[in-house]
Design a protein that fits this description.
Chain B: This is Ribose transport system permease protein. The complex is a heterodimer. By secondary structure, chain A is α/β, with parallel strands linked by helices. Helix content of chain A is about 35%, strand content about 25%. The chains are: A alpha/beta, B mainly alpha.
Chain lengths: ~500, ~325
């Protein structure tokens, strides 16, 4: 690491981070030198964001020490980190669209003269910052309407006017096209030559090979491997990222019927979040959809469930075209969605479990449109008991654990005997115990002849539950793998293709 | 276990019918207010005064029911006062100026109101204009149209029986107008509690995305809610016309604020999803009793406004504190 005799500008020693009883970082050591690009890699949830948030002062470590340019460093908030010269560029850009570029760069610390904002000074300093990045735009221009790449560079310019010596870039190319990425890389090379250290987080392994000098791989909160060069086969990097551990959590899979239930063809979203997706799911099959964040998986299943509009394509159910226009449409045809964000899309937290279940089962709890309130409670109690939910119908959804809330969301749909069930990240934020019971529910559904689609960012999960796996990358379908050819490496290769 | 459960169900169904769900605080406030006024004045505690109060709250009561629907789905309707005026003017024009039968005039007035509500609803759903802005615009438009009908002047000359409906107390207590209000209260309460459509309003107010994903047609329901609010305001206008035996386009100014106040005092949350008509009825009664009682004591109308404002703050503060603890 220090083989060339230079001393690092930032060192991390034994950094731990816990949220309550759960430790998410287990003693990370890392060095970053001036003028180098260190790629920080790992699957979703490996701890990359937590680590970069600790460096940039957004999150406080539970234990461990950091040294910055030879002195001890413990930023209590992002402000202190910025003042020390550590800048972080978030994946979601945090610019104010209705202000000019110069105002965005200096917001909160406007240069003042005679008690007023010195616009001329502000604009000329902003201009110098933009020039340093080779950007030829007027600092007076409004941010609204600028390309994502330009906005990204403005964020970087902002960090540079703060004399940042270390930049953390979190997925900077997630929203960039090929040309824009090239432009960004040119600027990164330039910053490197000026001695700025860069931590580069990305899922795109081909890019990493181009831009990074070293690679640090994380998995489950551990630093698992460090490579002193980025000139490695992608397979080697992927193997380090996914590791090799398969728990016996998943029940054995049954063989699905031959009969095709759901057929999705030439499916494209209006915004291009997914394009030209084609697949079919058989009766009793569990069909996994894998990919990295932003690959378009959630958008795809939402569109199949009628929740979002599509530009083209069709959904066929048992050979009949039923391309839904609304969730209501899809539900009527027996296609139901257990959405990604339980708290915002799955349940109404302030309402009781019984009410939450009733909202999607009016025909079961009402007679001629009249709700029978005792029936609402009975129906809820019956259904949540079936799925082993601890609690009673009259409890508010907010009083239940995440696992039980998720079971309620599933229960409210299964009471309708659906033909296709779409589950988006069914076990996100759910503890291990509840997780395996959700897998059991999934398998029971398949055994009943339901076509089940499971979207998951958890590779182990998607490999463990699926008969076949559709892999997506940046909105494209990059392949469908059969169970016997699917493994962590083959999926990751397609997901980063 | 099962025996007690069944017994519970039977009992709880009865209790549920009359339960006031979350409006206990306002109800206690109303009772305290009545006790205080009974002691402070000689004339408050009488059957006659009670009937007076009912007469005085008819228009507000009916409008507040519509407002409850709107606020339950997380919306707001600022146009109700203007729609009331529009309905009155259409009624007067059709019946007096155009000489049509009252039944047709009433139908026309309600239809005009429904159109105003549908326009607001479509602006909100199809064009995604915030409810505040859409109904603010409708408040101005409906008022303008109401004025255009007679170029700002009033219309008199309704048939004699029309005004009698607001005066004659059938069976010694029930005027036609109060009867209409009681019917609206009953139907709205039953609808919100026991109809699919009513329960859907709670779902939409709780979280429109969850409701949509649950298969509820959120857009259509939203439009219908604004139509309902406008039609109820129009109905309020017809009752007001009966009471005044005249219509004028300046009626109903600032009524939307009274209606919102009644709903909020009654415990319906402005963010939607919780509350109900029973609470609103209590809220309407609090405002009605307060006005009536303060008049009896001889408090000036200016001070009355201050007191009513304070009551709104008090009611909401109590609810908020209760929820937090």
């Amino acid at each position: 690491m220090t083989s060339d005799g230079r001393s690092p500008i930032l060192t991390l020693r034994n950094i731990h981070k816990s949220y309550g009883p759960i430790e998410v970082l287990h003693g990370i050591d890392m060095d970053i030198h001036a003028g180098e690009v260190v790629a920080l890699l790992g699957e979703n949830g490996a701890g990359k964001s937590t680590l970069s948030n600790i460096i940039s002062g957004t999150v406080l470590p539970s234990a461990g020490t950091m040294t910055w340019q030879g002195a001890s460093y413990a930023p209590a908030n992002p402000r202190e980190a910025i003042d020390a010269g550590v800048g972080m560029i978030h994946q979601e850009l945090l610019l104010l669209p209705h202000l000019s570029i110069a105002e965005n760069i200096f917001v909160g610390r406007y240069p003042m003269k005679h008690g007023r904002v010195d616009r001329r000074e502000m604009e000329s300093r902003a201009h110098r910052g933009l020039e340093r990045l080779g950007l030829d735009i007027s600092p007076r221009q409004y941010v609204e309407g600028l390309s994502t790449a330009s906005q990204q560079l403005i964020e970087i310019a902002k960090a540079l006017t703060l004399n940042a010596k270390l930049l953390i870039l979190d997925e900077p190319t997630a929203a960039l096209g090929g040309e824009e990425t090239k432009l960004l890389f040119k600027q990164i090379e330039r910053l490197k030559s000026e001695g700025v250290g860069i931590v580069y987080i990305s899922h795109r392994l081909e890019e990493i090979k181009q831009i990074a000098d070293r690679i640090v791989v994380m998995r489950d909160g551990h630093k698992v491997q460090e490579f002193d060069t980025a000139d490695l086969p992608v397979r080697t990097i992927v193997e380090a990222m996914v590791g090799r551990s398969m728990e016996q959590m998943f029940p054995p899979l049954a063989v699905p019927d031959e009969e095709t239930v759901l057929e999705v063809s030439n499916f494209s979203s209006p915004s291009g979040r997914f394009t030209d997706v084609n697949f079919s799911v058989r009766k009793g099959e569990i069909f996994g959809i894998a990919g990295l964040i932003g690959a378009g998986r959630t958008e795809l299943v939402r569109a199949i469930a009628g929740a979002d509009p599509i530009r083209s394509g069709s959904v066929k159910l048992n050979g009949r075209d039923i391309t839904p226009n609304s969730p209501r449409d899809a539900i009527r045809n027996g296609i139901v969605l257990v959405p990604e964000d339980r708290k915002l899309q799955g349940v109404i937290l302030d309402h009781s479990i019984a009410e939450n279940i009733a909202y999607s089962n009016f025909e079961s709890v009402a007679r001629a449109g009249w709700i029978r309130s005792h029936r609402v409670r009975e129906f809820a109690d019956e259904n949540i008991r079936k799925f082993g939910v601890k609690g009673r119908g009259r409890q508010k959804a907010s009083e239940m654990s995440g696992g039980n809330q998720q079971k309620v969301v599933i229960a409210k749909w299964l009471a309708r005997n659906p033909r296709v069930v779409l589950l988006d990240e069914p076990t996100r934020g759910i503890d291990v115990g509840a997780r395996s019971s959700i897998y059991e529910i999934i398998h029971a559904l398949a055994a009943d002849g339901v076509a089940v689609i499971v979207v998951s960012s958890d590779l182990e999960e998607v490999l463990g539950v699926s008969n076949r796996i559709l892999v997506m990358a940046a909105g494209r379908q990059t392949g469908i793998l059969d169970r016997d050819e699917a493994n962590d490496v083959s999926v990751m290769e397609l997901a980063t293709a | 276990m099962t025996v007690t459960a069944d017994h519970d169900v039977g009992k709880s169904r009865l209790l549920e019918m009359v339960s006031i769900r979350g409006a206990t605080g306002p109800l206690i406030g109303l009772l305290l207010l009545c006790v205080f006024l009974s002691i402070a004045t000689d004339s408050f505690l009488s059957f006659r005064n009670f009937l007076n109060i009912l007469d005085q709250i008819t228009v507000l009561g009916i409008m507040a029911v519509g407002m409850t629907f709107v606020i339950l789905i997380g919306g707001i309707d600022l146009s109700v006062g203007s729609v009331l005026a529009l309905s009155m003017m259409v009624l007067g024009y059709l019946n007096v100026e155009a000489g049509m039968p009252m039944a047709i005039a009433i139908g026309g007035a309600l239809l005009a109101s429904a159109v105003a509500g549908a326009v607001s609803g479509l602006l909100i759903t199809a064009f995604r204009i915030p409810a505040f802005i859409a109904t603010l615009a409708m408040m101005s438009i409906a008022r303008g149209v109401a004025n255009m009908i007679t170029n700002g002047s009033q219309i008199i000359g309704f048939p004699a029986w029309f005004n009698m409906g607001a005066i004659i107390r059938y069976g010694g207590f029930l005027t036609m107008t109060v009867a209409v209000m009681l019917i609206v209260f009953t139907v709205a309460t039953l609808y919100l509690r026991y109809r699919e459509g009513g329960r859907s309003l709670y779902a939409i107010g709780g979280n429109p995305e969850v409701a949509r994903l649950a298969g509820i047609d959120v857009q259509r329901t939203t439009v219908l809610v604004y139509v309902a609010s406008a039609v109820l305001s129009g109905l309020g206008g017809i009752l007001l016309a009966a009471r005044l035996d005249a219509v004028q386009p300046s009626s109903g100014v600032a009524y939307e604020l009274d209606a919102i106040a009644a709903v909020v005092i009654g415990g319906t949350s402005l963010s939607g999803g919780t509350g109900g008509v029973v609470g609103t009825i209590v809220g309407v009664l609090i405002i009605g009793v307060l006005r009536n009682g303060l008049n009896l004591i001889g408090v000036s109308p200016f001070l009355q406004a201050v007191i009513i404002g304070s009551v709104i703050v008090l009611a909401v503060a109590v609810e908020t504190i209760k929820r937090r603890s």
